[in-house]
Each structure stands twice: as C-alpha cells, then as structure tokens.
Glycosyl transferase family 28 C-terminal domain-containing protein (Streptomyces dysideae), 89 residues
Amino acid sequence: MSSRSPTSSSPADGAGTIAELTALRKPSVLIPLATSAGNEQEHNAFQLQQAGATVALVKETATAKGLRTAVAPVLTSPEWREQILNLNS
C-alpha cells in the first residue's frame, strides 16, 4: 500500500490497483481518470469489463445514477461475485 495521500497519483497507481483487483479477484466498479495519458485507464477498465471482472463507468455513465446501477450487482448478486472468483480457473 502506498504511503502517499489519497489525492496523489502516478501512472503506477492505476496499474497497481488493476493488478491487485485482478489477483485478489475482487468485484469492482472502475471509474477511469478521463485525463490519463493515452487513455490507458479506460482501455484497462474496458478489458476487465469484457472479461466480466468489473463494471466500468466512463463519461456519460459516470454519474450518481450510473454508479448506483453499477454497484447493485456487485453488492447483491452472488452469481456475479462467483463469476469473478472463477475467472481463469
């Protein structure tokens, strides 16, 4: 875990988070930083979403309503969580 404040960031912060979520098979909702260099955060979020490992909220879906909609299956669907646990198994 980084000792930096929660408001600081570097390119490695996003990659580290993705690696940890993937390795630990944690359900997640990712909101990529819109100003990331080369749009890599959005690309990574969509890759994980296509694999069924996350829900990605970008641009027009990154709203309070979009977040509520995205979080619901993460919190209420045992099947969705089970799917994540079984990825690449």
